[in-house]
Amino acid sequence: MMAQYLDIKKDHSNALLFYRMGDFYEMFFDDAVAAAAALDIALTKRGQHEGADIPMCGVPVHAAESYLQTLTRKGFIVAICEQLEDPSEAKKRGSKSVVKRGVVRLVTPGTLTEDTLLDARRHNYLAAWSLIRDDGAVAWVDMSTGEMIVAGCVPVSLGPLLARLGPSEVLCIDAQEADLRAMVDGTVTVLGTASFDSTNAADRLCRLYGVKTLDAFGSFSRAELSALGALVDYLDLTQQGNLPLLRPPVREQISGAMQIDAATRRNLEISQRLSGGRDGSLLSVIDRTVTAGGARLLDRRIAAPSCNLTEIRSRHDAVEALTDNAHLREDLRAALRSVPDMDRALGRLSLDRGGPRDLAALRDGLAQAEVVAGVLGASQGLPDRMTEVARDLLGHETLRDLLDTALVAEPPHLARDGGFIAPGHDPDLDDARTLRDEGRSVIAGMQADYAAQTGISALKIKHNNVLGYFIETTATHATKMMAPPLSETFIHRQTTASAVRFTTVDLSDLERRVLSAGSRALEIEKRHFTLLREAAVSAGSIIGAASRALAEIDLTAGLADLASGADWCRPRMDHSRAFDVKAGRHPVVEAALRRDGGQSFVANDCALNAGDGAAICLLTGPNMAGKSTWLRQNALIALLAQAGAFVPAQAAHLGLVSQLFSRVGAADDLARGRSTFMVEMVETAAILNQADERALVILDEIGRGTATYDGLSIAWATLEHLHDANRCRALFATHYHELTALADKLPGASNATVTVKEWDGDVIFLHEVRSGAADRSYGVQVAKFAGLPDSVVHRARDVLETLERNDREGGGKRPVIDDLPLFATAPAPAPKLTPKDDPLRDKVKSIQPDQISPMDALTLLYELKGLATPD
Ligand SMILES: Nc1ncnc2c1ncn2[C@@H]1O[C@H](COP(=O)(O)OP(=O)(O)OP(=O)(O)O)[C@@H](O)[C@H]1O
């Protein structure tokens, strides 16, 4: 057995080998050590190899999925090695023969299909990057749904594209591994150059789709072919020749989508919080979809907002129609709620990994598609997009009818045990089942007869896999059964600790009949399963179209529900370079404030009207006033609008945005070995080098990660560059009030500030953005709110006053530093903390612990508690 193990393992050195032994997957040697640590399971040993113990660990087959989940999340690749024959077959070859085994599948993060291993509401992409000279391409596939897309991609756009896709696994050749590791969080898998060969790729794809030439799918560059070929090659390898149902490759122009790089996605917390997790992200707040397919489509649209005006307007038309018609929207959402995940069910069936429940998912999904089509058909004046989508909901009636009549209402998960074909579908099956079931009732009758015949009421007829059917009595009654006359009928089979087992000629006879009927019924059901599976897979494209249509309607209804419930408006979109938002809100901050039930969100305008040149708004204002919120809400409004959603505002006129950049000063990236300031500068450089006239740039306190004058100079020069060279629309928040002077110098720049009110030495945040510049940051007041000790706040006020006085008197900051009391004189003593009247403190001081009885101590404790919580 070990020889067989080692032989299989040598072909899968980069994977953990799950070696099937009966009801367990066992791992040996280094695999066992690594898996035991990763899964937190016991590491044992089994036998010896070359004089040393063989480490071993194992997981039960029935629970394997949850272990696979942990391992794939931790980046492991697992090779599933199954027994390819029944152990009885092996025995026929001799008692020492080893059961045939072979790897049937490699489980990798990018090739998962099981529901338990996947997030239903997100895509799971496997991507491949190919670079042929300067021509690059990325191909990606969601194996669980079969969608395959390819896009030409210059190296500089690779980061933003991968950030958009968030693939769980990326394929590349050796030379590109390091670059890719820096760009993706998922697994990077290196393949040999042969996998990326573009000539082979074309042949491979033609064979896969059964066509002579790929022209029907579009014309592909060599890099695109190479990336597609690598995907197919890898799927073939991981599925061991059992390819999933792949839809024909679709070619995408990445310029068709708004470019948003990884840092911007992080900063805007589009699908994940900066702190990790989906809760509190934009996606979590706007997702009102009711199906998994709808949720995945929303995720895709938000990740890649469109730059095509016709497409955007058509999405808005559809959302508008459902916003205006609440009845229709509710009817649609009610019908959609029971739509199962057809894409993934079909994906599993195509890989022969599905079960009867997946067939039922198709049946139920297709039936609901008809209901949705009916609801839409009964409504007047729908926009074109909706009527086109509605057409895809029908056309599958033959398959739906077949599944309807063939399957029981709630079939089991696995085909193995039968019980999923409905009575009446196949007379042969019905006959076999009747015999099998009657057999069971005959056995029950036989038990009653034997009990009467022997006078042993505790006599039972039972079944197990070793003996088949047998008669069981307790040891006390056994003597009677083993003595004549009963011993003539009852043949002794086995004695256990607590029971004695018998059989009879009649029982054996009946057993044969019952079992053969049972296994015949099972065989028939399995045959039906194969037929139904094949029917479903060959109707794959119709099912796919219906499923896409349902997702589109779900998404539209979800966005309409959001728009009407949260008071959002349809943005006016055009090719201008306007960015004019009236009473805009930040959807996530607004939702958080509403949830906390405190202050309500203050809506703010944003008017960036770029004619030919730049339009930059320089925002100054106190800490905590709402600068970052305002900056981000405008970026999110642009993103939502182009994704096809309405926007959180009273009105919006937006010219198309091709690239969205958002940077926040100072965020460490220690994992990638960059200091705070370095990260800030690398990211700023990327914007200044890439932003075009259609970019929208959000810069939040750029330059704050270094000394004041360096930071100010960098911010100054950055602003000038954005204005003169990039000529884009930009929002720039800063605490360098000196920068506000630039508004007079640069025609495209204007100042805005967030207002506060001073009250009794404190500040009150009004969160209102208006034109003008701030003169103070109120940082010291904010620090006080944050709970800095009073002595530190007082001291900071003194220092600030001295600095400001010197500044006013024209000394500048630098020469004044030496005159600061901070360095020149001994620090003024911090204001002494005069404890306020504090009865609790007084009481504690008065306690004499050594002179107090336990009883009094307890009373005292209550008294202290009362003083601490007077109410
Ligand atoms: N328009 C608004 N209406 C109501 N509350 C708001 C608004 N904008 C911001 N806030 C509240 O103020 C808090 C601080 O906002 P934000 O982080 O945008 O301030 P900031 O000016 O960028 O601060 P800093 O300069 O310290 O980074 C938010 O968490 C939110 O609770």
From TrEMBL:
Gene3D superfamilies noted in UniProt: 1.10.1420.10, 6.10.140.430, DNA repair protein MutS, domain I (3.40.1170.10), MutS, connector domain (3.30.420.110), P-loop containing nucleotide triphosphate hydrolases (3.40.50.300)
Keywords, in A-Z order: ATP-binding, DNA damage, DNA repair, DNA-binding, Nucleotide-binding
GO CC, alphabetical: cytosol
Keyword Membrane part of the UniProt annotation: no
One BP term from GO: mismatch repair
Chain residues that bind ATP: 621-628
Chain segments carrying region Disordered: 826-848
CDD domains: ABC_MutS1
Single GO MF descriptor: mismatched DNA binding
Biased composition (Basic and acidic residues): 834-845
Annotated DNA mismatch repair proteins mutS family domain residues: 695-711
UniProt superkingdom: Bacteria
Family: Belongs to the DNA mismatch repair MutS family.
Function comment: This protein is involved in the repair of mismatches in DNA. It is possible that it carries out the mismatch recognition step. This protein has a weak ATPase activity.
Name of the protein described by the UniProt record: DNA mismatch repair protein MutS
Organism encoding this protein: Meridianimarinicoccus aquatilis
